[in-house]
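[audit] Reproducing an earlier prediction to check determinism. Same input, same settings, fresh worker. If the tokens differ from the archived copy the diff job will pick it up downstream; this log only records the rerun itself.
[audit] input (398 residues):
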Amino acid sequence: MTQVNEKIIPYGRQHITDDDIAAVVKSLRSDYLTQGPEIARFEHNFAAYVDAPFALSVANGTAALHLSVLALGLQPGQKVITTTITFSATANAVRYAGADVHFVDIAPATNLIDIAAIRQLLADSPKGTYAGIISVDFAGRAVNLQELRLLADAYDMWIISDSCHAPGAYFIDEQGREQLCGNGRFADLTVFSFHPVKHIASGEGGMVTTRHAHLYQQLSKLRTHGITRAADDFLNSVALAGGGEDYPAWYMEMQELGFNYRLTDLQAALGNSQLQCAAQGLVRRRALAAVYTAAFTGKDYVYNLSGDVGGHAYHLYVLEVKDRLGLYNYLRRHHVFAQVHYFPVHLMPYYQAQGWREGDLPQAEAYYKNCLSLPLFPTLSDSDQERVIQLIESYYVK
């Protein structure tokens, strides 16, 4: 019987500090709510955090994905490879551009897109069949982008890294160096999300990072209705613009069809404040993950777990367990709200209508039947985590 006074423990939760509140209040009292100095400051600080030359803020992670495929020139009818274990926005961005999605199975050891499967797919297809790859750092574990880059280069393909789960994550390259997600050394563009349950929260929001100035400029234009204010890029004449010797200060040009995908100064103020605690939050997430790993390693009811990976950012801690539904319901009865990430995107009705069927990606489908994301967030207390562990053990040990 569930006790009515049992504390609710969600799978994820934002942490808003007094400093965060002060930063937002300061922004509210400033001259800017929409486009102001906090945005440029947030972009600069985030670029430094991931060691990238350029960072562009946007309205959310989905907008970041959409603008990225457009900036890379994705055309209707082209094909893009991605994983099926992700939020649907990853694949949907390809469809927004009128292009087609080709899902690839996951590697069971990591639950990340299977690079060996991509290699085989490309070897079996005429060169030029696929325009690009969108990899996903699922749960916070970084894809080996150096390996993926070598493959993409061999087939003249671009890479977008969906790192919405993974600010602060890294993989180890062939030289033994840590390669931060978002540094742009291997992916053409990397996208991040600032949804409340993510590492850095701004209410809603996203970021795109890159090392390519031309992509940054294209993203900047597409983010703001396709408009540019750079006089060197203007196509209309000075006379048509209404100027004398030079273009007038008010003049701007819409040169292509863009979007209103901008972040606000208010959100950027919160993001800037949250960024100050990002490293500390990452340390706590990794510590909590280590406790889960120690508790569940070797248990006969666990098929697979997130494991102890040095570069993992642990947005999620995923167990693959026997009787997932029974455990899920049992935890809910005790006010522990674990979650499932994700139902395979290729089996969503929309993508089944595109021709995908059950059985197409067996590793991902097997993963879905058993996966459960446990509560994991920086303010999760040691005692609350121990309660989660004890409840799981009590369900299986009867």
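[audit] rerun output stored. Observation attached for the diff report: The mean pLDDT is 96.
[audit] end
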